[in-house]
Write a structure and sequence with these properties.
The structure holds three protein chains of three kinds. Helices cover 75% and strands 0% of the residues of chain A. Chain A is globular, with a radius of gyration of 21 Å. Chain A has 17 helices and no strands. By secondary structure, chain A is mainly α. In chain B, the strands form seven sheets. Chain B has a five-stranded parallel beta sheet with strand order 3-2-1-11-22, with helices on one face. Chain B has a five-stranded parallel beta sheet with strand order 13-20-14-15-16. Chain B has a three-stranded antiparallel beta sheet with strand order 4-5-10, with no helix packed on it. Chain C has five domains: 124 residues, Rossmann fold, CATH 3.40.50; 188 residues, FAD/NAD(P)-binding domain, CATH 3.50.50.60; 156 residues, FAD/NAD(P)-binding domain (3-Layer(bba) Sandwich); 53 residues, Alpha-Beta Plaits; 157 residues, 3-Layer(aba) Sandwich (Rossmann fold). In chain C, the strands form nine sheets. In chain C, strands 7-6-5-11-22 form a five-stranded parallel beta sheet, with helices on one face. Chain C has a five-stranded parallel beta sheet with strand order 13-20-14-15-16. A four-stranded parallel beta sheet of chain C has the order 2-1-3-4, sandwiched between helices. The chains are: A mainly alpha, B alpha/beta, C alpha/beta. The interface between B and C is large, with 83 and 89 residues.
Amino acid sequence: MVWVQWGLKERALGNSSIWLCHQCATCTAYCPRDAKPASLMAALRDYSISHYAVPGFLGQALGDPKYLPLLFALPTLIFLAVLAWLGHLTALPEGRIVYSRFLPILYIEAIFVAAMTLSGLAALGGGVRYWQAMSRQMGRNGHGPGQALVPTLLAILRHRKFRECEAHPVGIRETYKRHLHTTHLAVFYGFLGLVVTTTSVGIGIYAFGYLTPWPLWHPVKILGNVSGLAVIGALVVFGYRRIADKEQAGKSTYSDWLFLDILLLTTLTGFLSELFRLADLPGLAYPIYFIHLDFVFFLLVYIPYSKFAHVVYRTAAMLHAASET
Amino acid sequence: MPSSVESHRGILVVGGGIAGITTAVEAAEAGYEVYIVEKNPYLGGRVAQLYKYFPKLCPPYCGLEINFQRIKKEPRVRFFTLAEVDKIEGRPGNFDVTITQRPRYVNDRCTACNACVAVCPVDRPNEFNFGMGTTKAIYLPHEMAFPMKYVIDDRACRLTECAKCVEACQYNAIDLTMQPRTFSLKVGAVVLATGWKPYDAARIDNLGFGKYPNVITNVMMERLAAPNGPTKGKILRPSDGKPVESAVFIQCAGSRDVNHLGYCSSICCLASLKEATYLRDQNPSAKAYVFYIDLRTPGTYEYFSQKVLSDQNVSIMKGKVAKIVEDPQTKQLTVEAEDILGAEKTTLTVDLVVLATGMASSLEGSKLGAGVTLDKDSFVVADASGEGIFAAGCARSPVDVATATQEGTAAALRAIETIQIAARR
Amino acid sequence: MEKKLGVYVCGGCGIGECVDKERLVRIAAEEYQVSVVKTSPAFCLEDVRLIKEDIEKEGVNAVVIAACSPRVNTDVFALPSATVERVNLREQVAWSHPPGHEETQSLANDALRIGIVRAQKTRPPTPFTEANERTVLVIGGGVAGMTAALGAARSSVKAILVEKTPRLGGFAARLWKQVPKHPPYRDLEEPGVDALIRETEAHPDIQVLTGAEVQTIAGQPGKFEVSIRRDGEVRSVTAGAVVLATGWRPFDATALERYGFGKSPNVVTNVTLEEMARTGKLTRPSDGKEVKTVAILQCDGSGDEANAQYSASVTYLVSLKHATYIRERCPDASVYVIYRDMQTPGMYEYFYKKVQEDPGVLFTRGTVKEVLPDAAGGLVVEVEGSPLGGGVRLAVDLLVLATGMVPVASESEGLNLAYLQGKGLPVSKYGFADSNFLCFPYETRRTGIYSAGCVRKPMDLTAAALDGSAAALKAIQAVEKSSAGAAVHPRVGDLSYPSFFLQQCTMCGRCSQECPFGAIELVPEKNTPFVVTNRCRRCGICMGACPVQIISFDDYTVDMVASMIKAVEIPEGDEEKPRILVLACENDAYPALDMAGINRLQLPASLRVIPVRCLGSVNAIMAADAFSRGFDGVLLLGCKSGDDYQCHFIKGSELLATRMENVRETLGRLMLEPERATVMDVEISGFDRLPDRLAEFVASIKAVGLNPMKGF
């Protein structure tokens, strides 16, 4: 906090604390000066994402609402181009709604694999830059991240840190902290579930030729739907609490809302696509599916630059902290 | 003299602690009539509950004794114990003060022979010791109490239903039918010396007071160390009565904090250093740790802090304590804090935690409304309050004893100025 | 007037059950031929009437009340037309000894004997009432001095205000703003000193003498002879009391050369910065450039012994004020405050918070390692020990050193007392006027002279104004008491004072040296002592100091104490009945003995307690006499001495300790063991351990055996 006041940017950004913080807001609750350290930490995290972003301009773009149309334009144009080439811009596929007929899985996979490789590299780049900064500012003790990897991953899987927030609740602020653990857990595993679903579908198609859409009773389908519902449910709670707890947890920023909304809209459009498909309303189903893809692109490809980057930076910080001891 | 220009030479002093007593005797010795109105059954206020003063580590009763001697010799000082001011009306030189005095149930015939205590069947928590230990329902507030008269706590006593003490008293000193009385005084000026009360430590929810028996407050520590305290001066753990081997002092427990008291009570750093010496004097192996934000040692108190800190077993750490965890078996306390200068988290496991709670104004929620301007912390804004009404000591702001006596003396003069100016009008 | 004793033995509060009252009655009647001896179950109640009747009808004029401690029922037994001696049979006999025991009885018997002898020997004092000038002299025309002068004048006491410089105002007149003193305690305020100056100058009862200095002060409270030099002329005035408000000087910053002071013009003191702010020139001294970055170094505390450490609580506020000046004047300036522990007690915390909220003021704990010039004409300040981590280097235009406040030494200027003991107020080891500064901050060691403001201790304007009022009150009090011939604190109202039997004086001068209050002067050339009555605090230290015992008070004499010692019955040769004389300080040790009784703790029955005004009033010869009278030991109970002394008369117990060397020597000459005479520090609250400590002493006396001189 004092580093920020003094303008010691490098020192503040190169510290693992900003990402070790899970925003339990205990500090804000107890701060004798009403300085709202939790909000500062959140702002620092936002700032550090754009600071370490590779390439930098994408980091800037995600943090500024005026670039939002531009960011959406990219996937939209790509998908429009493919659709135009397929001729689906003028005529939707006939008959039963099958999304792969609208936009073949292979095309999607190709686009996503290409884009995600780039974004994966970018994320790695950001992570490495942060790691180096931490090593510079906080010193190194010679240990690599290797030893700490397993315990850190376990900690993430168990959401141990969030539990710590819950361990010492403070009076009226209890509601805020109690939800943090459960809600984040739901989003986390919900999202993982969706990733597993998508991967399974891919494997199903390519390894076994098991074409989509799969029946609703299929375990993978069930997993997908349940996960989706978990994510939506948790996101609604998150959104509500962000408004309700803004006194305690600090005001939410543009990037908070952007990430929350994109994730919510991605999941929602996914469900809508499914529903419209089942309701056999091609006029609604295909456009929604298109939008869904847009959101998925936004969500996944911009990972290193949005709040989603916390998967990279927080893991890095936890690894760094764990490998120090 | 027509009543419109009537003026009075008397001074009302509200509160009989060190500031009020000082105001009273200093004004009386300069030739003015003084009335002290004290809420407790004895004079002496908060300092009577302290074991020692910093920085001289001398007993407060040394100075109180002298002041009581001065009161005994000075007919111009009159005092009312168990009394509170209901209202103050009027103007400089001519105030009408309404006072209500609660019944003591023991009259001036009491010789303090103690026969009543032997027969009293009822116990009450000992307020003088902050609830540590009990007294009988009829009791002497403490052995140095002035006036040295017993008193009955009517919240505990069954009064006429029991009356065993009445039988035991050879001197007809007990009157269980005594009623509150309201009376009024005419004075020329008023000095508020209402003092302070310890901030309620239970409101600091992360430090375990009220939850863990071995978390106590600084004022409780004074009573634990005092020879007339609940442990006869031995610093013992409340949970099991074992001598304390190690203690953590937490500064600014509820002070300099927007969630509690926003101001600094100005004495707690020195009080904790002083209390560390209590522990060290009793136990050559005991260790004391002080967590602080800024070590505030105004004026020459700086030298006191240097002296205490030259003891290897007293260490200080700059940092705010985050939480305290109790071991349910041993009742040991683990204190977790950030050591700012060492830039790391630190934990300490100790026998006792002493919260340096601050001084809150006794005027919080007071009915002394008219003519008195209070700030948001309920301290008197001295020069904004009505003309002829002054404040001294912790009624003005949280201060140490030396400042309270200074302000008490100053308030005596300001009251006299008021009286003289009114008389010349 | 012939003395007629009345002895009243009370049986209440357990005394009757503990001792045989009739024995006591017989002692009074037979051993001392007292004709009026009465008993009662409680003299403090209706039966006080019996005593009053005897005074009226029987002509009793010396009353001995053998009942409770003199510390209680003071008002009940205050009998205006008789002297009253109290014999403590309750707290120190009945409540602290086994009832019905032979030794308890003989303790009570001796206590009564001591009381009767005291009553026989005491004389009602005749007060000295010849010094009754009421004007108060105030030295120093700053806020404290002006408030003191106004305080006196408003209270119908005339004041003379002497100021050295050509105008009133003191340092306050040189301030641009003062720190917040009103809620919400966030904004700087006007010093408001002009209004104070106007009121002071306009008050008809204040004579303002600017450009004037006090040349000498002789005399005493109620009659200080003051000569004042002004414009080369010397005038004489008489004052009843003096307020010393000569203020402070800035700490000499040349000692802070290591921070670049004196080397770079851009290193200035806080006093200079105040001046810069007031004159509107917040520029870099080296080249007049507007300051954009300023570091304020709070040199304080143990890390910086070169500075005046005791003024940090004021200088911190000044630093915060200065940070505000700079930020208000140049909104884009940055101010760095380097400090150790932020000293903003009380409501000043809100001011600190306000300054902290300003993003242009940056605080760090730390010390300055080095200050070097930089290429741009500014300075580079290297800070170490900062929690920011690593070394911090600050490029600044200006470095402000928060230097401390040094009190003006009264020994060298201001007072010029024509006292044998020196020109100023004796100071404590920290350089401030010595007093029991916690409980009685204005009681200096020069009666009737009270210090106020920053000469007493570092303080802000609010406190200085209060201090001025308080000192004025003490001055008025001194005037009141002096004109009545009564002592001021702590033996307030005491009308007695020492007199000298000069025929036997050896002119050794010890009394004049040892008096803590400088009350005894020597006649020039003859070197015989005389007391300057109203300076005297009636402690009796002179009486203890005099090697030939020629000093006494009307109601407290060497002969009286010697006779009281003689009154004790010494059993012969009984190993189990040693007799120990206890001379106990009546302020602390005596109440502690009472406290033991109130707690029903058992005290050794072999002690014979005689209260004394101060241990310092105990003469070595008194103690030695006790041994020749057959006492087996002498115990002196008094207050702690040293830097943290608790003696009400400052020096009493310390002086006694040195005198005890003589007593031990005497014991050696008498072939007695030196440990028979012991001094013990007893605090008023030390009653819990007192019985054991006393019992240990008795045991040690028993171990060395009875006094072989018994019966001689």
